[in-house]
Amino acid sequence: MAGSVPPAPEFGETLPIEASPEVVAFLAKRRSASAMALTAPGPDDAQLADLLRLAVRVPDHGKLAPWRFVILKGPAKEVFAEKITALADSQANPAKANAALRKLTRPPVAVAVISRFIEGEIPEWEQRQSASAVCHQMLLAAAALGWGANWITDWYSYDPRATAILGLAVGEQVAGFLYLGTATEPPQERQRPDVAAITKAWTPA
Q1: What gap in Å lies between CA 113 and CA 140, rounded to an integer?
Q2: Residue 44: helix, strand or coil by DSSP?
Q3: Of 43, 82, 69, 93, which Cα lies nearest the Cα of 174?
Q4: Vertex 112, ends 182 and 7: CA angle to 5°?
Q5: CA–CA distance from 130 to each of 9, 91, 117, 147 (Å)?
Q6: Are 137 and 57 in contact (CB under 8 A)?
Q7: Within 13 Å, how many C-alpha atoms sit on residue 29's CB side?
Q8: Coil, strand, or helix at residue 27?
C-alpha cells in the first residue's frame, strides 16, 4: 500500500492552504471499490489507526466529536455476521436482505461509523452531517493509501435488533459501514450528475 501517514500536526501549528495538483487529480478519478471485490489483506491495526486519525479531520462545529467507531474484523466479525444473518429472513424482502449480507461478510475489515447527538447549542442536523463527513473522509483516505473501500448502510444499519447487536445506545445511528480490503478488480467509472442542471446562482426577488 501507499507510504506512511505523516504525524499529526501539533495543536496551534500553522497549516498553510496550498494548491495540490496531486489531490485534485486523485479527486477527479475517485471511485469506490465494489464491496464484493474486496478481499484480504485489509489494513492491520496500525494502518487502521492511521485511517481513523485521518477520518476525524473533518468539520465538527463545536468540537464535539459526535461520532465513534466500532471495528469488525477476524473472528469477531464472523460472529457479528452470524447474528445479523439470523435477522435477514424477517426483513420485508428476505432474498434481498440475505444477498446484501455478502457485502458484510466478504471484505476483511469493516468500520461502523456511529453518529451520536450531543445535547447543547449545536443543531442535531449539523452533528449528523459531521458523522457523514467522517465516512467520506475515511473513504478518501483509504483510497489514497491504496485500499479498496466502500461506504454502505443497508438494512442492518436500521433494524433496531441489528443495531442493538452492534452496541448502539439510545439516540445513536449508523452513519455507515466502511468496508476495507484489497480490491481484486479496478472499479469502472459510472455516470455522474450533470452539475449545470442542478446549479443556479441566487438572484434577489
Answers
A1: 15
A2: coil
A3: 69
A4: 70
A5: 21, 30, 11, 23
A6: yes
A7: 9
A8: helix
Residue 47: count of CB within 10 angstroms of its CB: 20
- Structure confidence by residue, pLDDT tens digits, 7-31: 999 999 999 999 999 999 999 999 9
At residue 3 the predicted structure's pLDDT band, cuts being 50, 70 and 90, is low
As a CATH number, domain 32-186 is 3.40.109.10
State what percent of residues in the chain have pLDDT above 70.
99
- Three-state secondary-structure class, residue 193: coil
State the residue for C-alpha cell 442536523: 125
Nearest to 83 by CA among 109, 104, 106, 53: 104
C-alpha cell, 46: 496500525
For residues 133 and 57, is the Cβ–Cβ distance under 8 A?
no
Q: Are 107 and 147 in contact (CB under 8 A)?
A: no
Mind listing the pLDDT tens digit for each residue in 41-68? Answer: 999 999 999 999 999 999 999 999 999 9
**pTM of this prediction?**
0.95
Residues 6+ apart with CB under 8 A from 59: 130, 133
Domain ranges of the chain: 32-186
